[in-house]
């Protein structure tokens, strides 16, 4: 048999084998493999072109032509098969990812302000209407500002009221209350009159439970000037309570102790759930404690740069989380910073 016939026969067998194999394949990976095997550089068809010199001169062009023809046919068959495979994949995807266009749309998720931010802004609004400005001060404080200048010297038993997170740096701690902001405001403004709200996060080294968190917000009030009296304190706080809890709400002031005020007091509002009759929210007392307050202690005024013989002032501290808890009957303070949307989206 001549070289021509051998090669041509080989090509015919090859074509038949390749076509049969192609017909049996499915899937894009298998197809790609087939292409390398039968049309790649090392494939038998391509090898035929290399073997052409083995044939006589006259036969070469005939074999070459035939090999080209086989190559073209295989390429066309491949394209056809590949297209069919692509269509099948698409049809499959359309079927499995079918959309039900009659389903109602998904409502977009709207972000919102954290409940404490809402309460804080309401408090700012009320005090802004009474002429108070917001004064921000750092959460990382010195022992001096947080305690000493507030009339709580080292080793004073009053320090036990504030379980404190100390940092590794001597004399630096996380503020346990917003009262150190008082010192900063006074030192900045002395001896101008002051009317500020000092809001922000405070930290205490607490075992957490339903009513204790190791981080929470406070809002401090500070008024300093000439002739500021306890009557101003009462009037301001009563006005705040009415704007926050409703016109005519009754309040009462009980004596209490805080080292930075003298006299010191706590203010209660009449329970707004039962109007003072007694209920689970006020634990049958009829009153809810909402803040600590008092006349700024002369030592503290002096530490801030104000002469206590000329100036006087009052201060108060309240907890916005506590206000929200009472308002919305939230029974666990840990909800505020647990970051659970099921809780947060209710407000
Ligand atoms: N700083 C106090 C605390 O965290 C709260 C407080 C009480 C602030 C009386 C005041 C005040 O300004 O007059 O427990």
Explain what this protein looks like in three dimensions.
By secondary structure, the chain is an alpha+beta fold. The chain has helices at residues 3-24, 28-39, 44-51, 57-96, 115-129, 143-146, 180-189, 230-245, 298-303, 320-328, 341-344; strands at 133-134, 140-142, 172-174, 194-203, 215-225, 251-256, 261-270, 287-296, 312-318. Strands 1-4-5-9-8-7-6 form a 7-stranded mixed beta sheet. It has a two-stranded antiparallel sheet with strand order 2-3. Helix 2 (28-39) packs antiparallel against helix 4 (57-96) and helix 5 (115-129) crosses helix 10 (320-328). The longest helix is centred in the N-terminal third of the chain and has 40 residues, at 57-96. The chain binds 3,4-dihydroxyphenylalanine. 3,4-dihydroxyphenylalanine (DAH) binds at residues 177, 179, 220, 258, 261, 292-294, 315-317.
Low-pLDDT segments, ≥5 res: none
Strand content: 15-25%
Q: From N to C, what is the helix and strand string?
A: HHHHHEEHEHEEHEEEHEHH
Count of helical segments?
11
Classify the secondary structure makeup into a structural class: alpha+beta
Spatially, the strands of the biggest sheet line up as 1-4-5-9-8-7-6
Bound molecules: 3,4-dihydroxyphenylalanine
Largest sheet descriptor: 7 strands, mixed
**End-to-end distance, in Å?**
93 Å
The total count of strands amounts to 9
């Amino acid at each position: 048999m001549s070289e021509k016939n051998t090669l041509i026969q080989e090509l015919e067998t090859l074509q038949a084998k390749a076509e049969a194999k192609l017909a049996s394949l499915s899937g894009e990976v298998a197809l790609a493999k087939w292409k390398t095997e039968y049309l790649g550089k090392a494939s038998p068809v391509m090898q035929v072109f290399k073997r052409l010199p083995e044939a006589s001169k006259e036969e070469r062009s005939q074999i070459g032509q035939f090999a080209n023809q086989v190559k073209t046919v295989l390429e066309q068959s491949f394209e056809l098969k590949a297209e069919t495979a692509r269509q099948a994949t698409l049809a499959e995807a359309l079927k499995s990812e079918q959309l039900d266009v009659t389903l109602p749309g998904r409502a977009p998720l709207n972000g919102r302000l954290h409940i404490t931010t809402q309460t804080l802004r309401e408090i700012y609004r009320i005090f802004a209407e009474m002429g108070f400005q917001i004064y921000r001060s750092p959460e990382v404080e010195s022992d001096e500002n947080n305690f000493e200048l507030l009339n709580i010297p080292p080793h004073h038993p009053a320090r036990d009221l504030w379980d404190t997170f100390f940092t590794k740096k001597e004399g630096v701690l996380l503020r346990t209350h917003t009262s150190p902001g008082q010192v900063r405001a006074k030192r900045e403004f002395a001896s101008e009159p002051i009317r500020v709200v000092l809001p922000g996060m405070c930290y205490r080294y607490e075992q957490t439970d339903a009513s204790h968190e190791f981080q929470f917000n406070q809002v401090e009030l500070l008024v300093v000037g000439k002739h500021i009296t306890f009557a101003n304190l009462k009037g301001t706080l009563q006005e705040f309570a009415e704007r926050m809890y409703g016109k005519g709400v009754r309040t009462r002031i009980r004596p209490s102790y805080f080292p930075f005020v003298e006299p010191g007091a706590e203010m209660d509002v009449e329970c707004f759930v039962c109007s003072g009759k007694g209920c689970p929210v006020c634990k049958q007392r009829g009153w809810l404690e909402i803040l600590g307050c008092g006349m700024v202690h002369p030592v503290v005024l002096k530490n801030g740069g104000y002469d206590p013989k000329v100036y006087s002032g009052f201060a108060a501290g309240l907890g916005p989380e506590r206000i929200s808890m009472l308002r919305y009957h939230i029974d666990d303070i840990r909800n505020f910073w647990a970051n659970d949307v099921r809780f947060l989206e209710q407000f």
